[in-house]
Amino acid sequence: MIDRQEPVQRALVVHPLRGDESISRDPDLRLIEACGLAEALDLEVIDGRLEPVRQVRPGTYFGTGKMEEVKALCGQGQADVLILDDQLSPVQQRNLEKELQVKVVDRTGLILEIFARRARTREGRLQVELARLSYERSRLVKTWTHLERQRGGTGKTGGPGERQIELDRRMIADKILKLKKELEEVKRTRALQRASRKRVPYPVVALVGYTNAGKSTLFNRAASATVLAKDMPFATLDTTLRAVRTPSGRDIILSDTVGFITDLPTELVAAFRATLEEVAQADLLVHVRDIAHAESDNQRRDVNDVLERVLADHETRPPLIEAWNKMDCLDEAGAAFVRARAQASGLDGSVRGICVSALNGEGLGDLFALIDQELSLDARPLDLVIGPEQGAARAWLYRKGAVRHEETDERGYTHVHVRLTADDAARFVAQWPQILSEVPFGPLGIIPEPVHFLQT
Fold first, then answer.
1. Residues 316 and 210 in one domain
2. Structural contact between residues 110 and 38, judged by C-beta atoms closer than 8 angstroms
3. Tally of structural domains, the chain
4. For 380, what's the count of Cα atoms within 13 Å in the CB-facing half-sphere?
5. Mind listing the pLDDT tens digit for each residue in 117-153?
6. Other C-beta atoms within 10 Å of 261: how many?
7. Residues placed in the known binding site for Mg(2+)
8. Binding site feature residues for GTP
9. Going by C-beta distance under 8 Å and a sequence separation of 6 or more, which residues neighbour residue 188?
10. Which residues does the annotation place in the binding site?
């Protein structure tokens, strides 16, 4: 019987300790994260090392002495792959592979490979392929120097033609252009879908955060969905939307998005711009944080940096709140400390945080109460008089969670006190302009003349 299963590749993971590196991140945790990324590709991590690098060499990254040390490590463990947790230039990557005689993958290549494996939808595959080609285009340097120019023309008089590297560059450029056109169509389709959702007056709440912070688990619990949720980096790449009703009765659209990570490759941010538009166009962002992680505050800073890049071209930024997830992973003293921090959050103008556990449901009621509150910040009070034949209007208001008080008079007319945002009020006016009124509640039985509030 023939064994067709591919052999498991053995990987040595190295996180360089550079002299110019920020000391705000714990190197040991960065190494653990890099090992987790390697394991997400089904690589067998034989060793993980922190290696001091005083100066990065432009040609080989490592100096001569350090190169010999790494070469010995690869040989001792019989590694097939060296994972270097840093950005490598094409020349550095080629020279390292030549010297070490193993496959060399930098942080960007590692993340791109994970994305390539996890993408499921056509849109996700397009975005990953565009990012991969943009990354590999610069890595054709001297790959084909063993091939001469191909002869142009016919016979002996033809001049020199294109080198193989020039042909490959042109093919990649053509492919990138084609992918960009296809992604523009995806972007146009998403814009139409967003416009369609706006006609159905549901606000969009997008879950954002560091990879493996628990966004998909929270999404599944809140929306009764079955999105893949695993303890691994980048389990979610494709945006998923579900309609959710909050405890107040408000209907919202909850969006699960791709996770962010430290040093997220520029190619991925650019390629996933169509997907990340869901974040930019959301009415509210919920930053899901792994509050039990030792680097939670640094991860928060990394997520905010990526959001700045994503929202750089937009005039306004959606409001943001934080869901401090994985409370179930803390001991009693740690949980008490985090709850005290959450209670004090927002008092000094900082982002408001709510303690939750997506795994057991703790705090989700408080989270959605805060979501309701944030979505109602720009709402204005209105008094409406709804006739017996206008049940659809009353149901619409309840779906929005806008009703604060109602009474019914002896004629069957319902006097309703609501809070509506300007956008929702405009939608209500478009459908039921004859019943909108801004007059205060009068005695029951007296039906005020409807007044169109947009005319005031």
1. yes
2. yes
3. 3
4. 12
5. 777 677 777 877 888 887 877 776 544 444 444 445 5
6. 22
7. 216, 236
8. 209-216, 234-238, 256-259, 325-328, 357-359
9. none
10. 209-216, 234-238, 256-259, 325-328, 357-359
